[in-house]
Every structure is written in C-alpha cells, then in structure tokens.
User: Which sequence fits this backbone?
C-alpha cells in the first residue's frame, strides 16, 4: 500500500481526537499528534487500537512509542503490512 | 491477588477512599461495593439542608473500583510487576446519572474491560443501589503505571 493510501486511511481514524482543526486541515507527513494536532496523549492508545482494526495488524509497545507523527505512523503500518 | 490485597494497595485513604469490598474480579470484569457514610464531608455542602451524593463522588467510586482496583488486578497478572509505587491518572469519563444516592446508601459497582493496552484501561461501568436499580452507567478510562 502506498504512503498516500495509508495516510488517507489514517486521517478519519485520527480526526475524532483532534483538538487543533486548522492544523488537521493542513496535515503533512510531519504533523505531530500531540504538538500540532493537540491530541490528548491518552487518546493515542485509541488511535493505535483503531489503526490495528483498520489495517488488521498488531502494534507492540516499541512500535507505539515511535508513532508520534503521521510519517512515523505510516512507516510502522507499512512495515507491519509487509510482514503479514 | 486477593480482594483485601487489592484494597490495601490502592493509593487512596480516608476521606477519599470509595471502595469497601471487591467481591469478584477476573481478567474480564470486576464487582465491588461502597456504602456512603452519612457523616461524609461532602453532604454538608451538597446540597444545603438536602444531602445528596455528588455525581463526581459517584464517578470517583465507580472509577476506584472499575479502573483503579481493576487495573491493579490486571497489572498484578503480569510478570515482574512491582505494585507498591503505582501511578494512576483518570483520562476520560462519559457517565450518566439515573437515580440519586442518599446518605447511608450502599452501591454495587460492576465494570467490564473494554480494553487494557499500553497501560490504558477503558471500562464500561454500571452502579446499582440495593434495590437493584441502576444509578450510574458509562465508560471510564485511565492510565495505570507500575
């Protein structure tokens, strides 16, 4: 799956937890979940669980720690999909 | 882990401990109770001359059983965990209140695990009074770190 395709599927997962709508509207691969989108850190867990369901993958603790922005999250998803 | 051990390890004490008994606990659910003493500090102010248990206190009671006690038990099932210095933080509450709880009333809290991942526990909780009526229901989440 292409980076763009994964990012498009990631957007609706992240959206319900976003507190900075303007930065979400101008989302880039560097958008940081906590600093730019102002997502409550506790909700990162919900995002990760939704990502697992959407892509049918299993995220481990060390993957979770990397998923701080869009690009890193897409990379983790890509790696997991490749290893399925 | 025994029920008495769970309560002893909770990081609360009087006047903010709202767990009296843990009656059942498993990997998927927990059941406990608390009786609101008529002499509790908050009745004097909530409300003037009309004591009713505040919703925030009911929520706290539901969370101490459905998140803190439950989370402590779930953590204790993992290997090499030291529970003596655990840190708790409630992260979200979505609850509705159905029936008032009066001074001296006993409540039963039943919680089911929605998920426990990455040290975050989300529970679906229900609180009943002794007549079996539902007084509170909702979803609570918190982070628990050993």
Assistant:
């Amino acid at each position: 799956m292409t980076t763009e395709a994964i990012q498009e599927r990631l957007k609706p997962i992240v959206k319900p937890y976003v507190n900075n709508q303007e930065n979400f509207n101008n989302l880039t691969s560097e958008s940081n979940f906590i600093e730019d989108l102002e997502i409550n850190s506790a909700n990162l867990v919900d995002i990760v669980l939704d990502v697992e369901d959407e892509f049918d993958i299993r995220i481990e603790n060390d993957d979770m720690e990397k998923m701080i922005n869009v690009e890193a999250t897409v990379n983790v998803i890509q790696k997991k999909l490749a290893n399925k | 882990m025994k029920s008495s051990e769970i309560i002893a390890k909770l990081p609360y004490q009087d006047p903010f401990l709202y767990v009296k008994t843990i009656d059942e606990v498993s990997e998927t659910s927990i059941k406990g109770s608390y009786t609101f003493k008529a002499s509790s500090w908050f009745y004097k102010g909530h409300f003037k001359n009309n004591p009713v248990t505040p919703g925030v206190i009911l929520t706290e009671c539901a969370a101490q059983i459905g998140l803190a006690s439950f989370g402590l038990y779930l953590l204790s099932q993992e290997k090499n965990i030291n529970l003596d210095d655990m840190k708790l933080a409630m992260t979200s509450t979505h609850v509705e209140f159905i029936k008032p709880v009066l001074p001296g009333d006993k409540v039963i809290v039943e919680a089911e695990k929605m998920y426990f991942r990455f040290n975050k526990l989300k529970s679906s909780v229900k609180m009943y009074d002794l007549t079996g009526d539902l007084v509170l229901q909702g979803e609570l989440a918190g982070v628990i770190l050993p």
